[in-house]
């Protein structure tokens, strides 16, 4: 899998609509909330139904409860969340739209609760809580 810089370069060139945001672990890694690890996939979040986007150039396929596509050997999963929000994050001169940290944590809590055997989400949550403790924001 690619480095974070390479992954973000690929994302810059995909030309996503403005109402699709980057979610999952990638924003947590980029913002140093969790330690670097190679993402298994890149989560993209849309606040409008996926079918309403013009994404023919990405060759999207329906996969279980989401949609997916591959680009430059990276796997992307596209999820619909009508309540999705975003924050802008500048990385090397490019502004990305990330899901807010609290939204990612909320999703990971739900996933960790359903998938006890998947330690990735639990590990991410532990790192998030540790980061909050060091920020002294509570």
Low-confidence stretches: none
For the biggest sheet, the summary is: 5 strands, mixed
Helix content: 25-40%
User: Strands of the biggest beta sheet: in what spatial order?
Assistant: 1-2-5-4-3
Q: Mind telling me the C-alpha Rg?
A: 15 Å
What is the tally of beta strands? Answer: 7
Principal-axes shape call? globular
Provide the succession of SSEs.
HEHEEEEEEHH
Determine the strand fraction and express it as a percent band: 25-35%
Q: Determine the mean pLDDT.
A: 83
Number of helices: 4
**Class based on secondary structure composition and strand pairing:** alpha+beta
Describe the 3D structure.
The chain has about 140 residues and is an alpha+beta fold. Helix content is about 35%, strand content about 25%. The chain has helices spanning about 5-15, 25-30, 100-115, 120-135; strands spanning about 20-25, 40-45, 60-65, 65-70, 75-80, 85-90, 95-100. The protein has a 5-stranded mixed β-sheet. A two-stranded antiparallel sheet has the order 6-7. Helix 3 packs antiparallel against helix 4 (about 120-135). The mean pLDDT is about 85.
In summary, what is this structure?
With 138 residues, the chain is an alpha+beta fold. It has helices at residues 4-14, 25-30, 101-114, 119-135, and strands spanning 20-23, 42-46, 61-63, 66-71, 74-80, 87-91, 94-98.
Secondary structure elements and pairings:
Layout: H1 4-14, E1 20-23, H2 25-30, E2 42-46, E3 61-63, E4 66-71, E5 74-80, E6 87-91, E7 94-98, H3 101-114, H4 119-135
Helix pairs in contact: 3-4
Main features:
35% helix; 7 strands; alpha+beta; single chain
